[in-house]
Design brief:
The structure holds two protein chains of two kinds. Helix content of chain A is 34%, strand content 20%. Chain A is of the alpha+beta class. Chain A has three domains: 16-54 and 159-234 and 326-381, 3-Layer(bba) Sandwich (FAD/NAD(P)-binding domain), CATH 3.50.50.60; 93-155 and 236-323, D-Amino Acid Oxidase, subunit A, domain 2 (D-Amino Acid Oxidase, Chain A, domain 2, 2-Layer Sandwich); 432-549, no CATH class. In chain A, the strands form five sheets. In chain A, strands 5, 6, 7, 13, 14, 15, 16, 17 and 18 form a nine-stranded mixed β-sheet that branches. In chain A, strands 1, 2, 9, 10, 11, 12, 21 and 22 form an eight-stranded mixed β-sheet that branches. The longest helix of chain A is centred in the N-terminal third of the chain and has 17 residues, at 73-89. Helix content of chain B is 30%, strand content 21%. In chain B, helix 1 (12-23) packs parallel to helix 10, helix 1 (12-23) runs parallel beside helix 12 and helix 4 (81-97) crosses helix 12 (416-432). Among the domains of chain B are: 1-34, no CATH class; 143-265, Rossmann fold. Chain B has helices at 12-23, 60-70, 75-79, 81-97, 161-170, 183-189, 197-204, 210-221, 240-248, 262-277, 410-413, 416-432, and strands spanning 2-8, 28-32, 102-103, 111-114, 120-123, 126-127, 132-133, 147-153, 174-180, 226-230, 252-255, 281-284, 288-294, 307-313, 322-328, 338-341, 344-347, 354-355, 379-380, 389-390, 393-394, 398-400. The chains are: A alpha+beta, B alpha/beta. At the A-B interface, helix 12, helix 15, helix 16 and helix 17 of A face helix 5 and helix 11 of B.
C-alpha cells in the first residue's frame, strides 16, 4: 500500500470551525473542497453516505447544456462552461462519449433549426448530421430518425465525483462526517452560530459552533430552513429512471424536442439508463420513493423510441430521486419554480446572520454552485482568498490513465482498467502484488479483495451500500448476487461491522436493493431474483428478522410535518 | 429413437424419477440442458421447514396434515398427506440404496443444518459428512459438541469463519478459527476468479495434498470436540472427511459455502452415476425444440385426453424421440422450466396450464425481499397422478415433477427437495401403473 493513501475522514470531533456544511451531495462536497482550498476551516455533515440524495439519483449525464439551449439560456451556458471544466479536473469521473439529439418522424424537424441556433448562441458546439451518418456513429439508434445533432454531452459518475471532492477537502484539512445528521441549529439572537449533530453510528449528539452554516441539503434543505425559522418553498419532484443490464449505445441519446418524460438514454460503465419521469410528490414521501409499474412502462415505451433494442434488453433496476427544486423568489405568486442555481443569504433575505442556503442547479453545475457559495462565505469571513477549483484537478484526475497503468501491479488487463476507471491515479495505492488481495470478489465489475479493503480502511465505508457507491460491488448486471455475500465477509473481516451483525447487514442490503428490482420482476431479472432469494433465504437462512434487527437510531426528522403538499399547482 | 420414458430435466426430480423407472426395467432417456439447481443448493434436502402461517415444522407428519388444511393447492396436499408420507419414506430408502449417504429421516423429524452464515435451519436429509445437529421436539438444537474449531482455506471468499463463529458463540459453543493453505492451493489462488469451492476440492482431494490437510486438521482438532470446514473437499472422494475424522480422532464436518455448492454438485454426480449405471441414456446439453400431439385438439368438451407422439430436440435434428411416457422435471424460472416476459409467464416446453399467475404484472412480486413472493407459487397445474393439463385437457402420457410445479413456495416453506423427490416418485408410480 502506498504511503500517501487517499483518506476520507477523520471522525474525530471539533467544537469550533469557520464553516459548517450540511449535506454531502456533490454541492456540499464541492463546497468543502472550495472552502478548504481557500483556507477556511470547515466541517461537512451528511446524514447518510456521500451522494445519497439527488446527486446519486439521476442520469449521471455530463450535460453539454444542449437540452436547455432552447428553453433556458442561463442553464445552457452554465452547463457547457462546467462541462468543459469537469473534463479537465475530473477526467476519471467523466466519459467523453458525446451525445446525439435525434429527430424522429413524429417530431418537428423545424425544432432542430431553433435548437442549432440556440446551441450556437449558448456556445455549445453542435453539429447537424445526416441521418445515415448518425446511424453509422451509433448503430443502436432508432433507424427511422430523420435528423440528428451531435453535441458534447458526456457521462459523469456522481459517486466518484463527490468522493473525489471530499478527498481533496479532507486532504486540505476539512472534516467530512458521514452518518451525522444535523438535528438542530444553535441560534443566538439574530444569528445561527452552530449546529447540533447526531452521530448515527455511535448514537452521540454534540454541538459544533461555526461562523457560517451552509444549508446544502438538497430537497431536505426545507427541513433545515424550518429549524432556522425561515421559509424555503421547495417542490419535491420525483424523477424515475431505469437501468438496463447492457450498454446499448456508446453515445448519450436525446430527443430533439421540448424536454419531456424519458427522453435521455445515458450509457455508463457496463450498463445504461433511461429517464426520467417527473412527478410532484409529498415531503413525507421523500425517503420512500419507489418506482411504480406504470412509470416503468412509460420509461420502456419512450426509451425504445430512442434505441429500439432497449425494449428487449434486460432491465436490472429502477430508482428515483427528488430534484431540489425551489421557488423562484422573483415570482410574487410563489408558484413558479426556479430551474437555476439559488444562493440565499439569509442575513439579507430574512435578517438571520450566519446561514446560507445553496440549492437548485444541476449535478454538473455543482462546482459553480460551490464557488458562488464560497465567494459569499469569503465576504462574510473577510477573506480575499480566490477559487482555484476550476483549474485544479481532483484527486484521481491528477495524472493521465496511461501513466497510472504503468504504476499498478500486474493485473489482468480488464481488471487493471476497471480499477483505474474507478480510482484514477489513486489506483496504484490499491492494487497489490498479493494474490489474495487481487482475488475478485465481484466478477461483474471486477472488484478485488484489496479494493474492498481499501474502501473500508480509507473511504468511509460502513456497510454494503456505501461499498457499492465506492466500488460498484453489486451494481453490475447481477445486481448483487454472490459478490455481496463475499463482500459481507470481507467487510466484517475489515472491521466495518462486527461479525455478529453480518447477517443483518446483508439482509438489510438485500431488502434495500429489492425496492429497485421488484417492479422489474420478469424475464432474466425474475430468474436472477429467484436465485438470489433461494441463495440467501434458503441456503443461507437470512430472515426478515435479520433485516429489521439492524438498529438505526431514530431519525429525528422523520417526525417533521409535511412542509408542502404536492398540489397540482406546484407542477412546473 | 424409442424409449419407454423420456425425462426432461437433470436435477433431483428428473434423476429420481428416471432411476426409479430404470430400476423397474423400463428404458429411459434423460435430457439435461446444463447444471441443475442442486449445484447452487445447500446440499441438504429440505422437506418442509415452515407452514404458510410461518410456523416452523419439526414433526413432519403433523406438518403435512397442517399443510393440507392451510394450503390445499400444495403438491403435497394434492397427493395427500398419507401418500406424500409413503413416497417420502420410499425416497429415503431409494437414496440410501443409490449410495447417497444421508442422515436424517421423516420419522425422526427435521434436524438442523448449519448455513454458510452460521444459521441453524431445519432440514430433512443431510450428507453424512456435513454438520448434522439433532433437534428436540421444539426445534432446539441438541449439540453433540461444545468446543468447535472452524478450519478454513486461506483467502477463500465464499465462506467467512468469523461470521459463523459469531453465530456459534451465540449458541453457547466455544469456537476457535483456524486457517491453512498448501502449495497447490497457492497456485490456484493466483487466478483471481478460480478460487471457488469445487476447484479447491479438486486440489484437496488429491492424494499428494493429503499430508497438508491431515496436519491442518489435526492441529485444529487439538483443543476441540469437532472441526467444521467449508465444503471444499471430498468432491471426488466422498469419504475424505470421514477418513480425516479417523486421523484426527475428532469428527470433521463440512458446512455448505456460497455457490457453487460442492455438496450439491456431488449429489448431482452421484445421481447421474446411478442413472448411467442402471442403463439410462443421458442426452446432456440438449433440449426439446418441438413436439407432436395426437388427439382431438379442438375437442371443445375437453373430455378427451391428448398424448405426446414424439419430441424433437436441438441436438438430434430430424431424428424424433418417441416414448410411451414422459416426465417434465425442468425446474422453475431459475432452471428455465418456467419462462416469463413483460406480458406473461409460460411453461417452457409444452406451454402447459399454470396455476397462481395473477393477471397483472404488478401482482407478481411483493415490495419486500423477505416475503412469500407470488412468483414463487407460479407453476404447472397437476392432478393427483401428477398429470399436467394443456388448455384444460389432460396430457395422458406426461407427468410433471419438482420445481416446475405450481402452488407452493419452496423458498419460504423450505420444501423444494422434498417436493422434487416425492412428486418424482409419484410420477414414476403413475407411469408404472
Amino acid at each position: 500500500m502506498a504511503e500517501n493513501q487517499p483518506f476520507l475522514g477523520p471522525r474525530d470531533r471539533i467544537a469550533e470551525t469557520d464553516v459548517i456544511i450540511i449535506g454531502g451531495g456533490a454541492t456540499g462536497a464541492g463546497l468543502a473542497r472550495d472552502c478548504a482550498r481557500r483556507g477556511f476551516k470547515c466541517v461537512l455533515f451528511e446524514r447518510g453516505d456521500l451522494a445519497t440524495g439527488a446527486t446519486g439519483r439521476n442520469h449521471g449525464l455530463l450535460h453539454s447544456g444542449a437540452r436547455y439551449a432552447v428553453t433556458d439560456k442561463i442553464s445552457a451556458s452554465e452547463c457547457i462552461q462546467e462541462n468543459q471544466i469537469l473534463r479537465k479536473i475530473a477526467r476519471h469521473c467523466v466519459e467523453e462519449s458525446d451525445g446525439l439529439f435525434i429527430t424522429l418522424p413524429e417530431d418537428d424537424l423545424d425544432y432542430q433549426k431553433n435548437f442549432l441556433a440556440a446551441c450556437a448562441e449558448a456556445g455549445i458546439p453542435a453539429q447537424a448530421l445526416d441521418p445515415e451518418e448518425a446511424k453509422r456513429l451509433e448503430p443502436a439508434v432508432n433507424p427511422s430518425l430523420i435528423g440528428a445533432v451531435r453535441v458534447p454531452d458526456g457521462v459523469v459518475d456522481p459517486f466518484r465525483l463527490t468522493v473525489a471532492n471530499a478527498l481533496d477537502a479532507v486532504e486540505r484539512g476539512a472534516r467530512c462526517h458521514t452518518y451525522h445528521e444535523v438535528v438542530g441549529l444553535i441560534r443566538r439572537n439574530d444569528a445561527i452560530i452552530g449546529v447540533k449533530a447526531f452521530d448515527k453510528l455511535t448514537g452521540d449528539q454534540y454541538e459544533v459552533r461555526a461562523k457560517v452554516v451552509v444549508n446544502a441539503a438538497g430537497i431536505w434543505g426545507g427541513f433545515i430552513a424550518e429549524m432556522a425559522g425561515v421559509e424555503l418553498k421547495m417542490f419535491p419532484t420525483r424523477g424515475s429512471l431505469l437501468i438496463m443490464g447492457h450498454r446499448l449505445t456508446q453515445m448519450v441519446i436525446n430527443r430533439c424536442r421540448k424536454p419531456a418524460d424519458a427522453d435521455i438514454l445515458v450509457p455508463g460503465d457496463t450498463v445504461c439508463l433511461i429517464g426520467t419521469t417527473s412527478i410532484p410528490i409529498k415531503f413525507s414521501d421523500l425517503d420512500t420513493t419507489r418506482v411504480s409499474h406504470k412509470e416503468v412502462d412509460i420509461l420502456i415505451r419512450e426509451g425504445s423510441l430512442l434505441c429500439p433494442s432497449l425494449a428487449e434488453t434486460r432491465k436490472i433496476r429502477c430508482y428515483a430521486g427528488s430534484r431540489p427544486l425551489i421557488a423562484d423568489e422573483s415570482d410574487l405568486t410563489g408558484r413558479a419554480i426556479s430551474r437555476h442555481i439559488v444562493l440565499l443569504d439569509h442575513e439579507k433575505r430574512d435578517g438571520l446572520k450566519g446561514l446560507i442556503t445553496i440549492s437548485g442547479g444541476k449535478l454538473i453545475t455543482y462546482r459553480l454552485m460551490a464557488e458562488m457559495t464560497a465567494n459569499l462565505i469569503g465576504e462574510k469571513l473577510g477573506s480575499k482568498a480566490t477559487c482555484d477549483t476550476a483549474q485544479t484537478p481532483l484527486p484521481g484526475s491528477r495524472e493521465a490513465p496511461e501513466k497510472t497503468l504503468r504504476k499498478i501491479a500486474p493485473l489482468p488487463l480488464t481488471q487493471g482498467a476497471a480499477l483505474i476507471s474507478r480510482h484514477g491515479d489513486m489506483a496504484p495505492g490499491i492494487s497489490a502484488f498479493d494474490a489474495g488481495e487481487n482475488s475478485l470478489a465481484c466478477e461483474c465489475e471486477l472488484v478485488s479483495v484489496g479494493e474492498i479493503q481499501h474502501a473500508v480502511n480509507s473511504l468511509a465505508v460502513h456497510n454494503l451500500t456505501d461499498l457499492r457507491r465506492r466500488t460498484r460491488v453489486g451494481m453490475g448486471p447481477c445486481q448483487g448476487e454472490l459478490c455481496v455475500g463475499r463482500a459481507t465477509g470481507l467487510l466484517a473481516a475489515s472491521g466495518a461491522f462486527p461479525p455478529e451483525e453480518a447477517a443483518s447487514e446483508l439482509a438489510s442490503f438485500l431488502e434495500e436493493r429489492w425496492k429497485g428490482i421488484y417492479p422489474l420482476a420478469w424475464g432474466e431479472t425474475l430468474r436472477e431474483s429467484e436465485f438470489i432469494m433461494w441463495l440467501y433465504q434458503c441456503v443461507c437462512g437470512l430472515k426478515e428478522s435479520d433485516a429489521s434487527q439492524k438498529t438505526t437510531p431514530p431519525d429525528p426528522l422523520k417526525a417533521a410535518p409535511d412542509l408542502g403538499a404536492a398540489d397540482k399547482e406546484t407542477q412546473a | 429413437m424409442r424409449f419407454d420414458v423420456v425425462v426432461l430435466g437433470g436435477g433431483l426430480a428428473g434423476y429420481t424419477a428416471a432411476i426409479a423407472l430404470l430400476e423397474k426395467g423400463l428404458s429411459c432417456a434423460l435430457l439435461s440442458v446444463g447444471q441443475s439447481s442442486l449445484h447452487f443448493s445447500s446440499g441438504s434436502m429440505d422437506f418442509l421447514r415452515a407452514l404458510p402461517d410461518e410456523s416452523q415444522v419439526f414433526d413432519l407428519e403433523k406438518g403435512l396434515h397442517d399443510l393440507a388444511r392451510q394450503d390445499p393447492g400444495h403438491p403435497y396436499s394434492i397427493l395427500g398427506p398419507e401418500k406424500t408420507l409413503e413416497l417420502a419414506k420410499k425416497a429415503e430408502t431409494a437414496f440410501a440404496s443409490w449410495g447417497l449417504e444421508m442422515l436424517g429421516s421423516l420419522s425422526a423429524g427435521n434436524h438442523l443444518r448449519l448455513s454458510p452464515f452460521g444459521k441453524l435451519l431445519p432440514t430433512w436429509l443431510s450428507s453424512k459428512d456435513t454438520v448434522f445437529i439433532p433437534a428436540d421436539a421444539e426445534g432446539r438444537p441438541e449439540w453433540p459438541w461444545l468446543k468447535i474449531a472452524l478450519l478454513t482455506v486461506k483467502d477463500f471468499l465464499d465462506f467467512n469463519p468469523e461470521i459463523v463463529a459469531a453465530q456459534l458463540k451465540a449458541q453457547g459453543r466455544a469456537t476457535s478459527c483456524h486457517m491453512f493453505t498448501c502449495p497447490d492451493l497457492e497456485i490456484l489462488r493466483q487466478n483471481p476468479s478460480e478460487f471457488r469451492s469445487v476447484n479447491i476440492a479438486r486440489v484437496l482431494d488429491q492424494e499428494s495434498n493429503r499430508p497438508f490437510l491431515t496436519e491442518a486438521v489435526k492441529k485444529a482438532a487439538q483443543n476441540a470436540d469437532a472441526v467444521f470446514m467449508p465444503a471444499c473437499l471430498g468432491f471426488n472422494r466422498p469419504q475424505l472427511a470421514m477418513e480425516l475424522s479417523k486421523e484426527a480422532a475428532k469428527p470433521i464436518r463440512l458446512i455448505p459455502t456460497l455457490a457453487p455448492s460442492m455438496i450439491g454438485a456431488r449429489l448431482n454426480n452421484q445421481l447421474q452415476y446411478q442413472f448411467l449405471k442402471n442403463g439410462g441414456v443421458l442426452m446432456s446439453k440438449d433440449r426439446v425444440v418441438d413436439f407432436n400431439l395426437v388427439g382431438d385438439q379442438d375437442d371443445s368438451s375437453g373430455s378427451s385426453a391428448l398424448t405426446i407422439e414424439r419430441l424433437h430436440t436441438e441436438n438430434h435434428g430430424d431424428i424424433p424421440i418417441i416414448a410411451k411416457d414422459h416426465v417434465l422435471a425442468t425446474g422453475s424460472f431459475f432452471s428455465q422450466g418456467l419462462l416469463s416476459d413483460i406480458d406473461g409467464v409460460r411453461e417452457a416446453v409444452f406451454g402447459l396450464d399454470l396455476v397462481n399467475v395473477p393477471e397483472s404484472r404488478s401482482d407478481w412480486a411483493l415490495g419486500e425481499f423477505f416475503g412469500s413472493q407470488p412468483f414463487a407459487r407460479f407453476g404447472v397445474k397437476i392432478d393427483a397422478q401428477t398429470r399436467p393439463f394443456l388448455k384444460g385437457r389432460v396430457l395422458a402420457n406426461l407427468k410433471a415433477a419438482g420445481l416446475v410445479l405450481g402452488g407452493f413456495d419452496p423458498i419460504r416453506q423450505g420444501c423444494g427437495a422434498g417436493v422434487a423427490a416425492v412428486t418424482a416418485l409419484a410420477a414414476a408410480e403413475a407411469i408404472l401403473s
